[in-house]
From TrEMBL:
Domain annotation RNA polymerase sigma-70 region: ranges: 18-78
Gene from which this protein is expressed: rpoE
Listed name of the protein: RNA polymerase subunit sigma-24
UniProt keyword annotations, A-Z: Sigma factor, Transcription, Transcription regulation
Domain DUF6596 stretches: 178-278
The species this protein was found in: Lentzea flava
Length: 408
């Protein structure tokens, strides 16, 4: 990849959400914003190789996208007042501040996460418009077809327009009820960065993890006493702290038990542990994110995998199962049980999840590892084959292939 191609890729990663959010604020139409942003990036692909990369790529893209949007509104010109609106919006007057925090992308998240939309639509729309994920990446994350995800996003945008859902940060009294859906979306954006599913993307997308953390910090500034906001931030920080050790120099995923713990970011770990301690000190019953953060605090407290307090991890998963009795939580609990009670007990628990998780690659990864530890090599290889077929992350696929081939 040459310098210009790298600049375009970096600009898309760093500026996509800013451009879409700025145009949404200006034009009040997600379709116009998304399509104009896409046209601006397409123009960059055409012109930057010849003209050179502009000094401020974000400003160039926003200006170009704004002109594209105005041109589109003029072409449609379905109503005279819309044409006048396009003309007035051509001026670069500073727009008024909306909401408690002046951040376009935060406003965009609350618009995309409005309770008038189905939860699935909120997540897909935010991943597309804020996270900049492709429809294919979102489909892989949700184990859905691309067509289904595309329809979900289209219907969500139409619902926002028809219902005139406002583009703003909610008022203080509305925030607590609205924040749960936002946290769900931010967690999924973070997860896509932590273990990227796209075959042509970096295996770990720091742009997405950093953006999810940044926006979660902003949410916490709005709701400093909300335990789940603090819990989600702690969870993200403790996972992000391990990022420097997660992919080897050869591009292969490094499992937790093989990671160089000296490479972990101690400052992020300290901040995450402090948040967990602060929540414990309140004496309030923890929510899902707080429990997940506590589990990760146990892992990051151990200087060696052998020092991990697995009984505490299992006890925390027992708490989590009561709050969230999902098959994925049960799968993760079984992984911890394997360290405490052995792989045979864990495998029995995992096999009971076959009907619910047959299409989930981590289910087959877990089975492959447990079967390997039990000496059942042929079955382990078959499970690795299925996991490799379903895995979308390039670094994880390389790791699984090596592990499978070691069994030959």
């Amino acid at each position: 990849m040459n310098d210009v191609e790298e600049a375009i890729t970096r600009a898309h990663r760093e500026e996509w959400a800013r451009v879409v959010a700025a145009l949404t604020r200006r034009f009040g139409d997600l379709d116009v914003a998304e399509e104009a942003a896409a046209e601006a990036f397409a123009t960059a692909v055409e012109r930057w190789p010849a003209d050179g990369v502009p000094p401020n790529p974000g400003a160039w893209l926003t200006t170009t996208a704004t002109h594209k949007a105005i041109d589109r509104i003029r072409r449609e010109n379905k109503r005279h007042d819309k044409h006048k609106e396009a003309q007035s919006m051509h001026h670069d007057d500073p727009p008024e501040s909306l909401g408690a925090i002046d951040d376009d992308r935060l406003r965009l998240i609350f618009t995309c996460c409005h309770p008038a939309l189905a939860v699935e639509a909120r997540v897909a729309l935010t991943l597309r418009l804020v996270g900049g994920l492709t429809v294919a990446e979102i489909a892989r994350a949700f184990l859905l077809s691309e067509g289904a995800v595309g329809q979900r996003i289209t219907r969500a945008k139409a619902k926002i327009k028809a219902a005139r859902i406002p583009y703003r940060v909610p008022s203080a009294e509305d925030l607590p009820a609205r924040v749960t859906g936002v946290l769900t979306v931010l967690y999924l954006v973070f997860n896509e960065g932590y273990l990227a599913t796209g075959p042509d993307t970096d295996p770990v997308r720091q742009d997405l993890t950093s953006e999810a953390i940044r926006l979660t910090r902003l949410i916490r500034a709005l709701l400093p006493d909300d335990g789940e906001v603090a819990g989600l931030l702690a969870l993200m920080l403790l996972i992000e702290a391990r990022r420097p050790a997660r992919v080897s120099a050869s591009g292969e995923l490094v499992a937790l038990d093989e990671q160089d713990r000296g490479a972990w970011d101690r400052a992020l770990i300290a901040e995450g542990h402090q948040l967990v301690r602060e929540r414990l000190a309140t004496g309030q019953a923890p929510g899902r994110y707080q429990i997940l953060a506590a589990i990760n605090a146990v892992h990051t407290s151990a200087r060696d995998i052998r020092d991990t307090d697995w009984s505490q991890v299992v006890a925390l998963y027992d708490q989590l199962v009561r709050l969230d009795p999902s098959p994925i939580v049960a799968l993760n609990r079984a992984i911890a049980v394997a360290e405490l009670d052995g792989p045979e007990v864990a495998l029995a628990a995992v096999d009971r999840l076959d009907g619910a998780l047959a299409g989930y690659h981590a289910y087959h990864v877990t089975r492959a590892d447990l079967l390997r530890r039990l000496g059942r090599s042929r079955e382990s290889r078959e499970a690795y084959d299925k996991a490799i077929e379903l895995a979308g992350n390039t670094a994880e696929t390389a790791y699984l292939i090596r592990r499978r081939d070691q069994l030959r």
